[in-house]
Amino acid sequence: MISYTSYDNDTAPLFSILIPSWNNLEYLKLCVESIRKNSRYPHQIILHVNEGSDGTLGWVQEQQIDHTFSNKNVGVCYALNAARSLAKTDYIAYLNDDMYVCPDWDHYLLEEIRALGHDYFFLSSTAIEPKDVGKGCALAPFDFGRSPADFNEKGLLEACKTLQYNDWNGASWPPNIVHRRLWDLIGGYSTEFSPGFYSDPDFSMKLWHAGVRIFKGVGSSKVYHFLEVSTNKLKKKAVKRANLLFTQKWGISARMFNHYYLRMGIPCTGPLAEPGRTAGFKGRQFICDLKRRLFF
């Protein structure tokens, strides 16, 4: 069962920021602190507390932060959908609790939203990460710490003044932002992917089918990502299951979707076009069809 708590607040928030957290209190404190001090505009922070056995729930109540709560880990899909129900703004942002937002991260996203002039977009900030995990759309490796205990905040803030990255295609992972109408149109995050592996590309695929063609990473909006603090707690076989589930649901793999549809990591020059049916595309499609037959 999930409980819902919101507090009266006189501010007029710009974004509703959803943050699922699973017993990561020290990371969560740093994340919330960074939003409060590095954002140019006021925002509504909405947390989902999974278990909260490390003191998270008490801290959230003490801070009077809007939140939802489950006494067991329900995963990010249920957590995000529950937290969204408390959102008061038009723009729904999703942030991991192991992220630290850099100065004016929100300002650069808002500039892009205003420049687009419509709601059919999916935008992401650009992550600064301590190691290169092959995403092709992150500033890495730039190691400013692997935990709050050894976090080099001063070094990060100095580096942010000079670190540059082009706008890129393929917004999918958090931190991201979408208009609430689109979120509701596609039904939020698909709970069949619980606890959450491959729910990000699934959300993007649903947006694609709804007609979204702007999947843009904003190079000037930056966050520091400590990397996979919660996902490391879960078993690898859950990742394999979710990968196969995505292929069963959509007929192609998440990797194929990222490469041929989202063009992930390639410099962004405008709306994405439908993928060309090249020999490479057809070959990948054949492999995906074969996996669907073998495993399902």
Short description:
With 296 residues, this protein is α/β, with parallel strands linked by helices. It has a single domain, classed as Spore Coat Polysaccharide Biosynthesis Protein SpsA, Chain A (Alpha-Beta Complex), CATH 3.90.550.
Written description of the protein model:
The longest helix has 17 residues, at 279-295. Helix content is 37%, strand content 20%. The protein has ten helices and eleven strands. With 296 residues, the chain is α/β, with parallel strands linked by helices. Strands 1, 2, 3, 4, 5, 6, 7, 8, 9, 10 and 11 form an eleven-stranded mixed beta sheet that branches. It has a single domain, classed as Spore Coat Polysaccharide Biosynthesis Protein SpsA, Chain A (Alpha-Beta Complex), CATH 3.90.550.
Itemize the secondary structure elements and their pairings.
Blueprint: E1 2-5, E2 15-22, H1 25-38, E3 44-50, H2 56-63, E4 66-70, H3 75-84, E5 91-94, E6 99-101, H4 105-116, E7 121-128, E8 138-139, H5 153-160, E9 168-169, E10 176-179, H6 180-186, H7 199-209, E11 214-225, H8 236-250, H9 254-261, H10 279-295
Parallel strand pairs: 2-3, 2-5, 3-4, 7-8, 7-11
Antiparallel strand pairs: 1-4, 5-10, 6-11, 7-10, 9-11
Global mean pLDDT: 94
Shape label: globular
Structural class estimated from helices and strands: alpha/beta
**CATH architecture group name:** Alpha-Beta Complex
The separation of the N and C termini measures 32 Å
Please report which band the strand proportion falls in: under 5%, 5-15%, 15-25%, 25-35%, 35-45% or over 45%: 15-25%
Total domain count: 1
Radius of gyration: 19 Å
Number of helices: 10
Which homologous superfamily in CATH is the superfamily?
Spore Coat Polysaccharide Biosynthesis Protein SpsA, Chain A
Order of helices and strands: EEHEHEHEEHEEHEEHHEHHH
| CATH fold-level name | Spore Coat Polysaccharide Biosynthesis Protein SpsA, Chain A
DSSP strand tally: 11
Helicity, in percent? 25-40%
Stretches where pLDDT falls below 50 for ≥5 residues? none
Question: What CATH first level would be assigned?
Answer: Alpha Beta
